[in-house]
């Protein structure tokens, strides 16, 4: 029963990770990261059910908190860089290299 | 899981109704094509539809969204706290599980004070003002 | 003394219905809500007309009772417009997303105690969950998606702005609303609506937790986007807000329905959480049978209708507020007041329930109360008024001095001399130097 | 239900830092602009100093406590206290650098070159929010290595990282670089913490708990080839190794170090590394201690790769901060050698643990000093980052260049500098753990140490190259100016140099402290 | 128990260095004088100590002092000298004042006779304070009886020398300095691994040399650790094929620094082989004897041949040193008392001889501004005194009988020839082959001398001034020592022989040569 949720969570995580690696828009990359975090939440809740304790659900709360904080910080950074450069593409941010 | 079955039933009813309404509309109404009718409404001037991908909207809304998240999360923590604050009593008034008592009070006080500090900061920096 | 009635349903009583009973209950609720919307619209129009000294709808059917039905039919027969620019899928999806959760939100409202329904003992409530109130809030939040999607998919500036405004408003008031429930949970110790109703046997929470209740009442209008807080529509400024492009047809009907259902849910929640639910009010509750069988449905319905009347009454009485005022009220008054109130309640509960009268406990309570008062004073408008008065005084003084340089020895030439700024046409507003 | 308890006294240092951070936010909210800095700086310094004093009190009053407090969420044991102490001192020192004028932008939100920015500049003062942010980051750094379960560790990780992401974007000069570094750091950091979290989820699924000892206990009796376990361990490892900048997860480090304001770089290069290393140790020793046969080969490869990548790539760098970043990567590799050197015998473990703690201490002080000097060498457009600008610095400013050369020699691990003893301690611990085993491990450890030596030699090349530039090249005609250092900067450099020299000549007291901290190992 | 001699000997130059470094800006002259004074004080102290040596207490290491330094690593500040170390300490102490005098103007910027600037003016204070630091380290490295302490000095010594080459050297100075540092550092780090390994494997929780002798029994472990130490020492005492840094470093270093580099620093390598490689890992040393001797022979021949082809005076001298170091290494590993005594003696003599040659060459270069042999010619006529010293030093370099190098070279060759350490006659062959180098040495030295001193006097050379007093004071003692020890090496050998015997006992060489005590005389 829980296996399905785990597979789903794994898929979501993989999609998120691929998105981070492939996509070029910072916002999209960022949302992919959020997707990964939510995949984690799904896994936690599933395991909480499987293990029969509540720890996983509590962790999911905390993950939400952290994800929210990450949203706040991340969007602030991305918006700032967008205002400066008129572009949110990760590829355009290429000043830092050897 | 059974608890959610009734909700599912109601959702099917409501959803069926909504989809039916949306789907039936093209067949019940007349069709009189008119170019102007299909323009986006903009008080009569030449419309400037938003570009695909959505238009730009004021940053202000983003700030509000973030503040919402922050406080919503606070609520997430307040609810379990509130529920387990008082001791749980059985039907006969016997205490089944003791409450968290003063510990919880102190912790929540710290928590709320922390949130209020951030809140005060946002307020003072005009994060809550609309112009 | 705790008087326990056998009829009081608890969380344990749910999830046991046979499927057919469940379906019957669901259908009943659905029909109740559909009819409620139809007659609610009529009722509101009628009521508001009487308040404004006119008749209101009176053509279709007796007392115009069928007016809503006629409106609905008319909408169904209108042309189904798709503005050229819209994003079709989301444009169609938005009304559905708005209306379905609105139905679901009502499912946790208890309408009565255990009743005998076709030979089955079942609580008169579609379902109760351990997280019922949270579920209700969640459904309310999902509706916001509908609003935002409606605005966004329309590809029209008004719609987009309206959608965003609406979202901002609803989420803002959702916080205050969520906070206003915390006091209840502190008392009831549960999120299940049926148990909260049970816990109000002695006293309504509207009495015990007046500030919470008041906050909730304010939030109720914000959540349901009713006048005086119907900014998302704001036909005066935003044409129709997020629904600008939903000019007619059943899609518009769905949106309207969703909004009405939210109003109903808001009333239902008010009744359930603060006004004792289906329980009979005091004088009637002296009658032994008042809270048994099907009678409570009547009490619930009365409370429900009265609450709805109140909402309509407010609509008839108050003008729409400005958007910034709306947000200020939500963010700057309701939230801090609520937080302070929660701490006060917790401190009191700590002393009362745990019988913890130790110095620490009392001291902490005192600190919290004082802190809450301090916050109240800080956020009180009196303070702000004083400050603004001071500022106005300073400005007036400046005006006076600047208009008459000789009088106060102001060492600058009058600011409106032509050579001072007239040449460059550079405006120098008064008050700057 | 038992009411939970929190040992406020034991946690006091951390709580003080967090409390001061909240207070700092309030100062930001209510103090008028001109008073903010005046209030923030003492507040920050006093709280960090006070927290350090509390750590000392804790050590003096109770020896080295070993207890899991806050319902087993936070472990206050020898290594924790040691790391706390180090981080507090380092951050104190970094605050002195932050305090210096001119590092931070006046308004981060203003578009560079816009009227907004001009206005903000004219209004004076930079973001004083930097102080509460820094305190939050420090608090996170304290929580991260002391966390006794993976959830707390995750929270600590984020509390540490989020302010750092922001602070990276606040450089006053070269705003674009700074913002870019901030974004890269954020995206990659968030990515890695997602990995950490998913690893946590998998381990939770495996063990039914996220408490580190709980996981270890589950490992003792459970199947060691469970896919949940393996995925979990691998992903957790990715998240942690990212934070210390181990290869192949090192890509962010040079970019971020270069773009961030240098005082923040100093904080990251020291405090973050210390904290992350502490967390790595705790996870791998306490949480996955019974899995060491699985993670050891991986760690071997990572350590080897990290040292080589750090040392080799540093050679090609032309920017001083990038070079120091790669150097930091190489040093992370050396530290990982120490992580490898764990063994069943607790005495060996204590030995290598104390070696790592000692290494962290000496490396972080040197690194702060080096970055402090970087802040002082300036071009008209900001700090003179490009190495060619450093040519002939030894002639223009012999003292500064001399101290910097000294720090570089310490990085290279030349005897009579603290860096030498750090390296020595770690290598010795690694060889010792290898020799005890009496099986193939000994050869592997020796091989790793030899690799480490080769990497040190390669690394020495680029350190020496900078010295060559500074002392043996002719200064450019329009060379960078040496900023008149503030008292704070001087103090930072002096402290760093003193530690580097002092520990380089008399390492014993610090070794004693590290030994004592490591004596009882982590609590399990 | 602890003798304060060596700690004082270490402290004096360090204090002197601090004093010099703290002198006010512009006090160059004072700095030079203070440095000279300090180095003379050190020399005096060393000589007094040396004369007390035969009567001093202590079984092997006399003037021993042991203090705890880093107890948790088992590291001590342990110093003490046996005969071998003593002569090398004395060598250092003798050379430093000479170098101070010789490099009196090195930091002032070197100008040619016609006034072109070769090296710009640099900080004088820094130079002399580095020199004093270096002196302390040189004494320390020979006197250390704690292996860790030895390592610390071994590595730390690089830094002052690195700066002296890099800041005060010739045109290619930074390249040479970096090459020097990296070679040495790499070797040093390998040695560090071996040092740690030794500590760990021996399990004695101490780094004190006497306690670690014979501590490692397992032959395989010995071999690994031996390799670690040996590579470091081979780099240091430039042994073919890891010698390539030396010609660059020696050619670019200022003459004074080059003297210390070749005269003393490189001796640390051969000293280390003798002291540590042999005694700590006797089995491995025996096992590796043949390959090492082969390398040594290659060094001897290769150094000599390459030297012939050099056009740069300092490079030429550097290559002759590589050849000489081959002799020393061969002597060390010949495992016979005569050869080892000869090798030790060679270390000292080579210091004097090559020192004199470098300094004389340096004086020439200071006059002409060019290291190329072809730029000179006929110097004999304009500067006879300088030419004379140059000739004597050169002859010492080719081990002319009667000059000190001859004794040691002869001892090494006979010792090796007679050594039965490796069973077969392999060492005999090596000795025979190495004898070829004597002929080659004659070629390179005499040819250089001829090209520099004889022939028609070139135009720029005509402007040469002969040696001034300072320069005579520099060269004269060295030449005196060369000639003195050439005829009367006994005082040195008396000190060296017991120490070498002790070494051989520790190595457990059952060698008849031990009986033939003093065969070389």
From TrEMBL, chain A:
<keyword id="KW-1133">Transmembrane helix</keyword>
<protein>
    <recommendedName>
        <fullName>NADH-quinone oxidoreductase subunit K</fullName>
        <ecNumber>7.1.1.-</ecNumber>
    </recommendedName>
</protein>
<dbReference type="GO" id="GO:0005886">
    <property type="term" value="C:plasma membrane"/>
</dbReference>
<keyword id="KW-1278">Translocase</keyword>
<keyword id="KW-1003">Cell membrane</keyword>
<dbReference type="GO" id="GO:0042773">
    <property type="term" value="P:ATP synthesis coupled electron transport"/>
</dbReference>
<keyword id="KW-0874">Quinone</keyword>
<dbReference type="GO" id="GO:0050136">
    <property type="term" value="F:NADH dehydrogenase (quinone) (non-electrogenic) activity"/>
</dbReference>
<keyword id="KW-0812">Transmembrane</keyword>
<keyword id="KW-0560">Oxidoreductase</keyword>
<keyword id="KW-0472">Membrane</keyword>
<keyword id="KW-0813">Transport</keyword>
From TrEMBL, chain B:
<keyword id="KW-1278">Translocase</keyword>
<dbReference type="GO" id="GO:0016491">
    <property type="term" value="F:oxidoreductase activity"/>
</dbReference>
<dbReference type="InterPro" id="IPR038430">
    <property type="entry name" value="NDAH_ubi_oxred_su3_sf"/>
</dbReference>
<keyword id="KW-0520">NAD</keyword>
<keyword id="KW-0472">Membrane</keyword>
<dbReference type="Pfam" id="PF00507">
    <property type="entry name" value="Oxidored_q4"/>
</dbReference>
<feature type="transmembrane region" description="Helical">
    <location>
        <begin position="61"/>
        <end position="83"/>
    </location>
</feature>
<dbReference type="GO" id="GO:0005886">
    <property type="term" value="C:plasma membrane"/>
</dbReference>
<keyword id="KW-0560">Oxidoreductase</keyword>
<dbReference type="InterPro" id="IPR000440">
    <property type="entry name" value="NADH_UbQ/plastoQ_OxRdtase_su3"/>
</dbReference>
<comment type="similarity">
    <text>Belongs to the complex I subunit 3 family.</text>
</comment>
<keyword id="KW-0812">Transmembrane</keyword>
From TrEMBL, chain C:
<feature type="region of interest" description="Disordered">
    <location>
        <begin position="400"/>
        <end position="433"/>
    </location>
</feature>
<dbReference type="GO" id="GO:0005886">
    <property type="term" value="C:plasma membrane"/>
</dbReference>
<feature type="transmembrane region" description="Helical">
    <location>
        <begin position="330"/>
        <end position="352"/>
    </location>
</feature>
<feature type="compositionally biased region" description="Basic and acidic residues">
    <location>
        <begin position="424"/>
        <end position="433"/>
    </location>
</feature>
<dbReference type="Pfam" id="PF00146">
    <property type="entry name" value="NADHdh"/>
</dbReference>
<dbReference type="InterPro" id="IPR018086">
    <property type="entry name" value="NADH_UbQ_OxRdtase_su1_CS"/>
</dbReference>
<keyword id="KW-0472">Membrane</keyword>
<comment type="subunit">
    <text>NDH-1 is composed of 14 different subunits. Subunits NuoA, H, J, K, L, M, N constitute the membrane sector of the complex.</text>
</comment>
<feature type="transmembrane region" description="Helical">
    <location>
        <begin position="298"/>
        <end position="318"/>
    </location>
</feature>
<keyword id="KW-1133">Transmembrane helix</keyword>
<dbReference type="GO" id="GO:0048038">
    <property type="term" value="F:quinone binding"/>
</dbReference>
<feature type="transmembrane region" description="Helical">
    <location>
        <begin position="260"/>
        <end position="278"/>
    </location>
</feature>
TrEMBL record, chain E:
<dbReference type="GO" id="GO:0008137">
    <property type="term" value="F:NADH dehydrogenase (ubiquinone) activity"/>
</dbReference>
<feature type="transmembrane region" description="Helical">
    <location>
        <begin position="35"/>
        <end position="53"/>
    </location>
</feature>
<feature type="transmembrane region" description="Helical">
    <location>
        <begin position="316"/>
        <end position="339"/>
    </location>
</feature>
<protein>
    <submittedName>
        <fullName>NADH-quinone oxidoreductase subunit M</fullName>
        <ecNumber>1.6.5.11</ecNumber>
    </submittedName>
</protein>
<feature type="transmembrane region" description="Helical">
    <location>
        <begin position="180"/>
        <end position="202"/>
    </location>
</feature>
<dbReference type="InterPro" id="IPR003918">
    <property type="entry name" value="NADH_UbQ_OxRdtase"/>
</dbReference>
<feature type="domain" description="NADH:quinone oxidoreductase/Mrp antiporter transmembrane">
    <location>
        <begin position="144"/>
        <end position="421"/>
    </location>
</feature>
<dbReference type="GO" id="GO:0003954">
    <property type="term" value="F:NADH dehydrogenase activity"/>
</dbReference>
<feature type="transmembrane region" description="Helical">
    <location>
        <begin position="6"/>
        <end position="23"/>
    </location>
</feature>
<keyword id="KW-1133">Transmembrane helix</keyword>
<keyword id="KW-0560">Oxidoreductase</keyword>
<feature type="transmembrane region" description="Helical">
    <location>
        <begin position="124"/>
        <end position="142"/>
    </location>
</feature>
